[in-house]
Amino acid sequence: MILLTGVTGTVGGLVAERLRTDEPVRLLARDPGRITAPAGSGTEVVSGDFADPTTLATALTGVRAALLVTCDPLAPAHDEHFVAAARRAGVRHVVKLSARAVAEPDATDLITRWQRDNEALLRASGLAWTFLRPRAFMSNTLGWARSIREEAVVRVFGGASPHAVVDPRDIADTAALCLTGTGHEGRVHTLTGPVAISAADQLAVLSDVLQRPLRLMELTRDQALRGLLARYPSPVAEALMESAVRRGSGAKARVEPTMERLLGRPATPYRGWAADHARAFRHG
Questions:
Q1: Interior angle at CA 24, CA 118 and CA 168, nearest 5
Q2: What are phi and psi of 18, to 5 degrees?
Q3: What is d(CA 237, CA 243) in angstroms, rounded to the nearest whole number?
Q4: Mean pLDDT of 58-79
C-alpha cells in the first residue's frame, strides 16, 4: 500500500491525481471530508493529524511506501511523529518533499533549517528515503491572479531576479515514479524548470498568454515584508523575506537536468504552465 500526505495541498493533491499503480492507495487528511477518492480506484481516505501520533499509527498500518509533505516550520514535531510512526508500522520507503536550498550553505533561513533537520531525521531513521528538492513552484504566481484580474498589475520584490521555478505537476510525476519504481532509495532529486525566469519575465509570458497588457510594480524590501507579515507568523515571514533577498544574488538560477533523466522528457516551461492555468487569471 502507498500512503500520500499533503493531499489537500499542491503536490500531494497532484500525486493523488496522477499516481498510476496496481497497489492500493491511502490518502491521509486531517479533514477527510475535503477529499473525494475516485470511484472504483481502490483509493481510501483516512483521518490523520501530524500532531497526533495515534492517528498516524493507524494510517500507516500496512503501508509499504509513503509520500511525506509537511508545511509548518513552526511545528518540527510533525516530521518526528510521522517518521517514528512509520518505523513502528514497518514502512519501507519514505519519499520526502524537501527544498533545493537545503544543499546551499548560504541558505540559513528558518524554513531551510527546518527542512535540513527533517532530512537529517530521515537519514538517521533506518528507513529507506528519497528526497525531492524542488525550487519554488510555478503555481506560486496564482497569488497574482486577483491583482491581474482586477488591476492588470503585479506587485513584487526583486522582479528581475532569475529563479529556476518548477511546474508542480513535474514534481508530482517524479514523486509518483519514486513511490512506484525502484532504485530511488537513498537518492536526492533536485527539481527545477528548464530555464531560470524572473517575475518580470513570468508576467510578460502571462501578458502574452492572456493577450492583455500587464504591469509590474517593484516593492521595496519593507513593503514586501509588510505584505508577508499580513499573511504569515513573523518568523515565517522573515524567513521568506530572507529567501527572497538571497534570490536577488542569483543563488536560485541554476537549472538541473533531473526531469529529463527521470521522466524522459524536458521539464515543463513556465509558458506551458501559464497556458494551462490561464483561466485563473482571466475575468469571469
A1: 50
A2: -105, -10
A3: 10
A4: 95
Quote the pLDDT of residue 31: 87
pLDDT of 42 over the 80 cut: no
Question: Cα separation of 139 and 153, whole Å?
Answer: 17
> What pTM, to 2 d.p., does this model score?
0.95
DSSP labels, 130-157: EEEEE--BGGGGGGGHHHHHHHSEEEES
In percent, the amount of the chain with pLDDT more than 90 equals: 92
* Cα(168)–Cα(240) distance, integer angstroms: 19
Strand partners, 44: 26
Classified as helix, coil or strand, 191 is strand
Give CA–CA dist 249/271, Å, rounded: 24
pLDDT value of position 39? 56
152: left (phi over 0), alpha (psi -120 to 50) or beta: left
Measured between its terminal Cα atoms, the distance across the chain in Å is 42
Closest CA to 84 of 44, 117, 35, 126: 126
